[in-house]
């Protein structure tokens, strides 16, 4: 059924992965081995330095749907926050639900209602973000 093959004419085994990629062979058992093609010196390198993160938290008044007077944590100025309103995810969900049900004309109403808006508070002096008031 299958053609007869002569075992003397079989090809040799394929090369190993390392040989096929022409990668240099490193000595794994020698912990002091440093490849010569790198430009760093392992004896002068120390352990990585830890980075320090400083979080500044002030006593901010509770944020609401209206502008709030507070001291900006970034520029330390006493300001009335600037508010940017944007529709919440529940406004998009309610719009899609009304559109699917068949209320095509009324489906844009959630974008006009204050209960479906998030208010982003920011500093008018330095434009830094202060917080978000999410309506429930």
Major sheet:
3 strands, antiparallel
Mean pLDDT: 76
Please tell me what the overall shape is. flat
- Distinct helical segment count: 2
Q: What does the radius of gyration come to? A: 33 Å
Point out poorly predicted stretches: none
Write the element-wise H/E pattern from the N-terminal end onward: HEEEHEE
Please list the strands of the largest sheet in the order they lie side by side.
3-4-5
Strand content: 15-25%
Alpha carbon gap, first and last residue:
76 Å
Q: Provide the structure class.
A: alpha+beta
Number of strands: 5
Q: How much helicity do the residues have?
A: 10-25%
Detailed description of the structure:
The structure is a single chain. The chain has 2 helices and 5 strands, in the order H-E-E-E-H-E-E. By secondary structure, it is an alpha+beta fold. The strands form 2 sheets. It has a 3-stranded antiparallel β-sheet. A two-stranded antiparallel ribbon has the order 1-2. Strand 1 (69-71) and strand 2 (78-80) form a beta hairpin. It is flat. The chain starts with 16 loop residues before the first helix and ends with a strand. 6% of the residues are buried.
